[in-house]
## 1
Amino acid sequence: MKLTDLFRAGRFVITSEVAPPKGTEVGEMIENAERLKPCVDAINLTDQQSSVMRLGSLAASQMLKARGIEPVFQMTCRDRNRIALQSDLLSAWALGIENVLCLTGDHVTLGDFPDAKAVFDLDSVSLLASAKRLNGGFDMGDSELSGRPDFCLGAVVTPGADPLELQLIKMEKKIAAGATFFQTQAVFDAESFGRFMERARPLGVPVMAGIILLKSPGMARFMNKNVAGVHVPDALIDEMAGAEDRPAKSVEIAARLARDVRELCQGVHIMPLGWEKRVPEVLGAAGL
Amino acid sequence: MLVTERKPIDEIAGFLAGERSVFLLGCDGCAAASGTGGEPEIRELKEELEARGIEVVDWKVIDFLCQKALIRTGLRPYRETLERADSVVVSTCGIGIQATATVLDLPVHPACNTISLGGVRGEWQGEERCLECGQCFLEFTAGICPLTACAKGLVNGPCGGAKDGRCEVEPEVRRCAWEVIYERLERQGRLDLLRRAPLQIKDQARMRPPTAIRGTRTWAVDMRTTEDATS
């Protein structure tokens, strides 16, 4: 099932994500995915996020697919050259994976192998272009494929980026290269997200607002200091700090954000960061 | 020594679409030795451009375009002439093109590719760095090299990693190259260039030294110098 089919049917699409383990014990990942399954349309499998070496997102995507859970296979350009990227795309299609999220990827210096070669032979835009080319039956070198994929290709965008214009230009390039939906960096302020959507809406590609479950005021301050394009307003930090029951407050805030963006965009992407079991509550409280 | 090759005239003329007049800048250092940036080559480039209906307001060959002080002094008598030019076409290595773009803050077009010599000679004790990629990208990046200025060497725009304009890899020493590119283009009223720039895909093969260059004089001269120094 392709996410684009859901958008086309006018559905407000809901995705979430799980992270493959560092090691071969996949039980917890599967458990988290099963927990999310009843309330989401698809689940992203992160590709060694923050450049920390883990089990691969392709294998993990296939494991979910085998359990009847729709995967969104995340691919970054950090670890593979264009030969490996194209090859993994063909492998993914052969394994029944239909949705691919194309990203540039964090630099290796952020992860647990800072001494590794950072590849970046392609980037998010050229990866999208090469995947679209494969959809058309040819590889990047114009060789014809015997059997072609038909991926639904997605990309990411940061609504809170500054300068926003530069971000929008990149977004346009991703669309021209083949992106048919966007998942965004975490949104904490529906009003500024609305201003972003005024610029993004005319581009005509569905946007899913990213929503992170805020666990504590410390986490919010950490993100404000360290995470690109993310800004948690002080009012939200204070609200979190004043809460007696933090998990309940976390759910309340995430649900409120999901409700507030409901009319602004075409879906939400919930990033639970370990609180997978609270996602159903969030969506329930948001009326989704 | 940085070895350069002239880009095809069609490519250079393509950069100048919509412009009427240009100023040509050559370099009497490595570029002259490479046969790309000396006086004869600049005269030839002038004729080629004029044959395509592009006015060349004037031209100048400066000793070392990698030296920003020499660019400043060398171009001082041309200040008024430069005001009549839509842009400057620079026929030299990636460092000289970037240095010119930094000094003039005018649209600068690269007329050369800097050929890989296998590594270290593109180093320069300044902010302008050339990777000798053999496929100069400076045309689309306001004269700021995305291969050396961006930690990931991204050629199609920024990643999502910059925080407050600082690079995610080395925030203490690096600004996000693409934000710097954006700012320069915005200042020059040329932001549309980012939208117009074609999809860029790096040609990694050109980043290795071409076998052909190993038989040339420039390569040999450099080898000879090394031998002399050790004998």
## 2
Amino acid sequence: MAASRKPTLAVWKFASCDGCQLTLLDCEDELLAIAGGVEVAHFLEASSATVAGPYDLSLVEGSITTPGDLERIRRVRAQSTTLVAIGACATAGGIQALRNYADVDDYLSVVYAHPEYIETLATSTAIADHVTVDLELRGCPISKGQLLDVIGAYLHGRRPDLSTASVCLECKQRGNVCVAVAGGTPCLGPITQAGCGALCPSYLRGCYGCFGPVEGANVAGLVDDLHRQGLTDPDIVRMLRTFNGYADAFREASLALGGTPVTITASPERAS
Amino acid sequence: MSDPAPPPAIPDERTLRVEALARVEGEGAMYVRTSGGRVAEVELQIYEPPRFFEAFLRGRSYTEPPDITARICGICPVAYQMSACLAIEDACGVTLDGPLADLRRLLYCGEWIESHVLHIYLLHAPDFLGYPSALALARDQADAVQQGLDLKKTGNDLVDLIGGRAVHPVNVRVGGFYRVPTRRELAPMREALLVARDQAEAMIRWVAGFDIPDFERDYVFVALRDPDRYAVVGGELGSSAGWSAPIAEFDDHVHEEHVARSNALRAHLSDGGPYLVGPLARYSLNSAQLSEGAQAAAADAGLGPTCRNPFQSIVVRSVETLHAIDEALAIIERYDEPDVAAVEVVPRAGVGHGATEAPRGLLYHRYDLDDQGLVLDARIVPPTSQNQAAIEDDLAGFVDRHLDLDDETLTLRCEQAIRNYDPCISCATHFLDLTIEDDDGAGPGATDRRPPGRRGR
């Protein structure tokens, strides 16, 4: 193969909603230019033509939830020079990681009449728990701007420009009035990584943690504030346990608050 | 060339297999087996891993399902948010009207535009034109594809403006919104929608010119109906079989069944028959309520008042796109900022039902709340699990009539027939891991498309 060939891009899906890979198709102004700069070698949502690996850049969406996917992610890693995990499912197990706090057999019986038909792992875990990940792109969903920056950085051999500050910094940059201090709205902004552009406070809503815990997050300090705002422990546990609910800092803080707010009883009504 | 070989004999036993369907949302496979010149077995297999939404919704607050269930599907999060809001508000005895209800429809119009146009240009049109992807199509028809992308962007921009972002909007809440747009903020959208209107009309002409297989089916249609408008957010259940019912009676009409080999629960009507939801059902039941412009464009595109050819769904989707643009324009025209961004919703013990028309079809939610507003039980019936039986019936009917085609052509046509439904397998998976029949017969090309590690035991 000629040295000047275009780098190959592959997009892989594990347990997820498809929203992060859709973000690539949502780059309406850039998509055809991207397709000009890379060879889209494997992207099932967009193309029925696939090219065998190895791949220069793999974007991996979704979390690992089945024995089969555990094997598949290793194969994807082996075929990929650079592997970028995209989105909260891939970086923290996603909303489906709520099963990690429960008994998956109970979950099975709630949803399915015949749990014996289903093959699933007891946990939903991040890609980096199983293979080496070169870069993680946070968010539920990821930010289009960050995705374009990562692809651009890869093509030009530079480091991607990803903020590691908290949502609070982005909020100040936008000139928002603080929804927590001025409005008394519970907000995870101080402990959540930037990337969304402080979207929720801009819509007069408290941040709900789509980009996961910021490095060095003072979660205990925020929990004190939330208590002062009148939230109960179960309220705070629910706030912490959403799309990034199994990310280390959110998990530890929610466990420290004790109890599991999710009680599951088998549902008799779903007969086949 | 001068001495053509006789056509190869069609074998008695044939197997058509697609291990990983492309240009659909989520992970599915197709399996068709013929025997003695007839279809013996057809399966749309859903192996997308289960995510257990209905289980972990238990114990969550009544305020949370709109954000949580949005994560079932990145393509139609607004549909999940809207059905969830309606069901919870129903449980709490609240109904929205006026500008707040209008804003919900406006947001939903944005999702219809972006989802329909995504499917038309990026997922489905390549089938009709013989390309593996829109990216490949763009090498020959760059202007057409870019126009589609521009139109899709207008839909996304509308979701973005009202909802805060195109995927998993942040601005939706039970009772309304966190912040409502001003008239002034909506004004630029009007200009963009007027451009989109022309693009949609061009799109309708483009898809109407495709070579569409002649394939009529005898469906039972089910869609929402609303005396005042082409129903999208709420209304009543209506069927081409002649019945109608309040959404609260969904369970009396639809049963879900858990069958082996598929990770989705499969829905059928209480009489045991399959039915169809989605663009064809909506159009056939409600086409007289489309905007004038959409009705005229439908007639020009050769559609009658009903449509029973699933391969024409691409035309119906394009007509619905124009309708969504017209409805969005009308809403923006009459919009007055409401006094409050949300009405108060006080939780109470009870059961609530909600249904809306996701781009792919009827999406039903039901929540059982306790007196603190915690979810005791949740039920979600997405469109693709309702359509699974109809998809398989289409495949069987299509293959039966086209056994003269060679395996490759017939397989491509079958994939196209599945994509007629814009199936959203991420949604349909209720959330399972399927065991695919163990077979090493796939050739080297097929091996690349096979998701590793999903073999049978």
## 3
Amino acid sequence: MTYEELLIQTALADERIVVMTAENRALVRSAPKVLGNRFIDTGITEQTMVGMAAGFALRGRIPIVHALAPFLTMRAYEFIRTDVGIANLPVKLSGYIPGFLSDGNGPTHQSIEDVAIMRGIPGMEVYAPADEDDGVKMLGHIWSSPSPAYTRINHKKGVYEHAPYRPGHAEIVAQGKDVTLLVYGFLFENAYRTRELLEREGLSAGLVNMRSLKPVDEEAIVRAAVGSARLVTIEDHLQTGGLYSIVAEVLLRRRLTADVVPLSLGERWFRPGLLNQVLETEGFTPEKMTKTILSTINSVSYAK
Amino acid sequence: MMTKTEGESLQSTALRVREHIIRMSEGGGCFIGASLSCVELMVYCYARVIRNAQPKDPNRDYLFLSKGHDVPALYGTFAEMGFMEASRLGNHLSTADSIYWHPNRNIPGVEFHSGSLGHLPAVASGVALDCKLQRGDNRIVVITGDGELNEGSVWETVLVANAYGLDNLTILVDRNQFQANIRTEELVPLEPLADKFEAFGCSVIRVDGHDFQQLEKAFTEPAVRGKVRVIIADTVRGKGLPSIEARADRWFCSFTAAEVAQLLEELHGNVAASLESETLVVR
């Protein structure tokens, strides 16, 4: 099942749902024909779309709102925070091409702070499915919860068949004693292959697909921190405010400490280009991540 | 048509709302100028336009106050309409209640919070479009300031609202000629304002916003099919208090008890108040 098929099926089953877009129709192409006037395209107006979505929610509707992630979360940020957040309305935000998925677009289109800013809104839930299969397993829950939610949409087909989604729980793909990779969204697949390479190097490597960043599965993080010699956070997001920060917050709250290696973006936008080249240049291919992780592990043990 | 008696009754309600506003300018203060300018607009809407506002009926009409800093006028009107006890206005700025400088839904009758300008035309458009989809005959009114029209989101929403033919939506502009601290025409000129809204696809009527008969005429004019209705209400900032009327430096005022007593006298056409409080407070 695709994102769009799930969306249409869910909307047909629930009259409360309205599907909105700021003229980003890539994932909702069949919606106008099937949903009629419950499909609302406001044109290139992210602010108005989000404000109208709040109005729909006031009337008891569940708006599922689509736009490119950077414009949805940043152009309309104050509308999300003020109209959806303060009122705590069940507006469901679907952001396309988050993180590296904006590939050749350039920094204007790079949504690499969205997790940080969206989780900064009280009551807002933040999700990042690993791929289309994961998304289809998660979105039914996301859309039926009474909370506002932001989802980093990744509709790429993956090779991994995900476990059913349990609300608030991460997906523990593998446990490892030497290292555990914590990842969300599009980088899941490369993290999966990185884990295989690390195992081939003789390490016991774990992998956790975080799925939900807010609420976050604190126990999964704690178990990984306790059961593994070190953690690696992997994200196509700025280091500030994303998973690395979330892990730091959880560990501090639990009075735990751990060796945590962040694989994220520093204080800069990434070099735009074809997705494979971006991953290569930024060091997020399985081979490069493996190399980085191994060198960090070696330098840490060297220091000891 | 509004009878003479009905008109006089609305005028006396408006006078009482102004008294509430003046009292709320004591001890912490309020945005008194913009509150006094829109009294007739609020009183008229709640008395003659908005049906079943309180208790909230799903088929009610909606009033959204987008220029939220004039909340004393809204709450004063609520007190007069019986939505809340007038004595509750005395809780102004107490953290134990929710009567602060901007509207919020803890107060019965408030449809949506505001304070950040340029938001509620969009929220109201969502409600208006949903009412259309549900085939309701609900009327949706959103009151904006004129300084608020600097916000691009207002114009963005007007484009979209007309694209969706929201003729159940009325944008009521409190045209009191002032931004926060300066005349609109001296900073970011709005005129010709009616032409601007018309060019964006609206049907526009311009009235004296302190004249109930003119408001009645504007609101009872049949909607133009498929067009957002805009009523530009020409008003005077600080209306009713000559000592602060149309003064750029009387945006936010915090008066002493003695000054409030004098202003209440002035409101009733007696001696003019002699004001010593600071003329400009940054909020």
